[in-house]
Amino acid sequence: MSNRRLQQAVRVIAPAVVGAALALPLASTFLSAQTPPAVQPLVPAQTAPAAPATQPRPDSVVIKLGNETVTLEEFELFISNLNPSDQEMARGPYRRAWADSLANMKLLAKEARNKQLDQKPEVQKQLAVMRDQVLANAMVLNVQETMDDAYLRKHFDEHRQQLERVSARHILIRIPGSAVPLRPGQKELTAAESKAKIDALAARIKAGEDFAKIAEAESDDTGSAVDGGDLGSFTRGKMVAAFEQTAFSLKENEVSAPVQSPFGWHLIQVTGRFDTFEKLAGVLRQQLGPQRTNQLVRDLREQTKVELNDAIVGPPAPVAPVQGQPVQGQPVP
């Protein structure tokens, strides 16, 4: 089997095996969020299992294959290598189907070893490539995990305002001339009526009514209203000035007085604040990790001469010209 055929076999094993009714959900096509009706019988709809009273231990056995076992830790590692949409399925309604998938994969791999397919040169080469990919990813994680707090804190102190985030809900009552469209059948309120309505909603919240429920029923921002007005989290510079200034001034769970923007009147509830080093250290590691990794790669390439065969991979990309300098081949005026 050539390397090309081996790669093709790896890519098509999932649909081929599913088609053979082994239900190997190794391709997102068969277990996407919108499963086509034609393949639904292969993986019957399942309701998400109820959460156990106590969380199972990482060494809990998930699968038994004769005398061999697969632990929860191994199963979660398998899931973590899926694409994001399949990970969501594997941690939800199709958890059992993906456990079956792992069992089938293990059985096929064991049979391949029994037939000594792992000794074939082309398989060895493919495994070596995969091993290098895993090791390179491990190095990237190592760079991220070993950044010392002093380095992270320095960056936090220098860029605190840009890093700070809040998560918030809001209720919007549009004003005349707002860019927010009227809902079907909605009456255009006057400026005075809009202000009176937002004041009335503020009074209801102050009296103890649930902010999210009022947002769902009354907010003119229909996109967020369905989620109780939830806007997720955001940094400075993402919202209009009046909204941003108010949101970043509120304490967690505090509700603002009515705030006017070009869109209308807002009530804002901050549901979370991420403004301390402790809360943002993880974000800092993710943001600074690529910079440190790129620097490591530059250092390694200085230590080891790297040469590419232009005849096979093509010539280097042209270097972007310095501002004000002519592009190569462009006449100077």
Automatic annotation (TrEMBL):
Pfam families: Rotamase_3 (PF13616)
Segment forming the signal sequence: 1-33
SUPFAM superfamilies: FKBP-like, Triger factor/SurA peptide-binding domain-like
Organism expressing this protein natively: Humisphaera borealis
Keywords: Isomerase, Rotamase, Signal
Ranges of residues in domain PpiC: 163-272
Residue span of region Disordered: 314-333
Designated name of the protein: Peptidylprolyl isomerase
UniProt entry tagged with the keyword Signal: yes
PROSITE patterns, per the entry: PPIC_PPIASE_2 (PS50198)
Annotated GO MF terms: peptidyl-prolyl cis-trans isomerase activity
Ranges annotated as biased composition (Low complexity): 320-333
